[in-house]
Fold these 2 entries.
Entry 1:
Amino acid sequence: MKKKPQRSCVCCKATRDKGDLLRVVSLADGSIVYDPTGKAPGRGSYLCRNEECIKTELKKAARLSRGLRRTITDEEAKALAQEMLAAAEKAGSDER
Ligand SMILES: [Zn+2]
């Protein structure tokens, strides 16, 4: 079996397979986006695919900013949360 890369959630610190986490990346132009491919270049942060972690973390946008070395605005955080919650929901229904 191939060993999968592990990452930990910035919110609850749980270590999971990288593919099981949602990646948020800070792009070279300074924008912070949800990265569904997990391959976008830039500094990434990871979050569990669950509402708790996404909501908790994006509410504390300041902490996410620190991980990404950039300030994230409330609006950006809100937009990100929506995108990631939709992705988490989709992933959940695919598994079922
Ligand atoms: Zn988590």
Entry 2:
Amino acid sequence: MERGVAESGILAQYLGVMAIKLCIKPYRRRFRQPLLTAHGYWQWRQGLLVRLEDRAGRVGLGEIAPIPWFGSETLAEAEAFCRGVSTPITDRPLIPDTLTATQFGLGTAFEQLQTHTPMTSVQNPQPSGLCGLLPTGEPALTAWPILWRQGTRTFKWKIGVAPVIEEIALLETLIQALPAQGRLRLDANGGLNLEEAESWLSVCDRLNASAAMATVEYLEQPLPPSQTELMRQLGQRFRTTIALDESVATVAKLETQYRQGWRGIAVVKPTITGDPNRLRQFWQHYSPQLAFSSAFETGVGRQAALALAAEYTQQVAPLPPLALGFGTLGWFDDDWDTLTPAQLWDNL
Ligand SMILES: [Mg+2]
């Protein structure tokens, strides 16, 4: 009896030492120019920063940056979950698989506490290792040279917004203007139908046959996620690579596609993919070719996502290496990109 009391006393003491405080801060930031995708205009980026602190004063910062139209939870759902967590936290909360952005944000914050490594500034990759996002439509033609002079060699351009004939004419102009070492990713955000996707792929195959011109690296998510099997078939009929993005928006969907035989490129936005550890287990199991990409998160989520991308590159080195889709600094109408994660937390 006495022993039992003593043991529960030790346990209570341990939990007391571990007791973790959770604070959240919602944020809202405006794109300098609304981002035009096949889903329409995106004007405001909203999310939550989370901060864990244990009794020893160790801190873990995380970011929950949902994109509901991409398959994650809504901001309201994420916030409701966080507000429902009773604090002080004595055990890591179980987060449902429907809350993938929350799994990432809280998961990466807990990892900092558990490994006793506070979020420090991860070195931003050199422009040559980044994919720079071009404005949609004709403005891309005047935007790329500025990025090129800064060292960017891989670009992303959103398509599926204007009529196909107009966009394909712009693609031909853009590819001819880019130097031969340039690489271009076309991202349709699932906005094409089969016939349109075939038109794009025929043109890309023709352009890629010329070594003297820049390369279309891949066509990203031409069809909606419900038509993933059709995209796999397209990948067999055309030479231009197809990458899945919306189809593999969560780690559960990634696992499903790989179980069903997808072996092309998969775009991974760690911020909305889910639990970081499950993502690690996925790449360790399949050694997939992944293109890590930003979800327009703040520096907090960005640091955690870049750290994961660096781990992946160390553990699974795809050939040729894919540029990181984190060429997204400077898209917002604020100075947050110049702040450290801790400064951003304090300033919110
Ligand atoms: Mg995409």
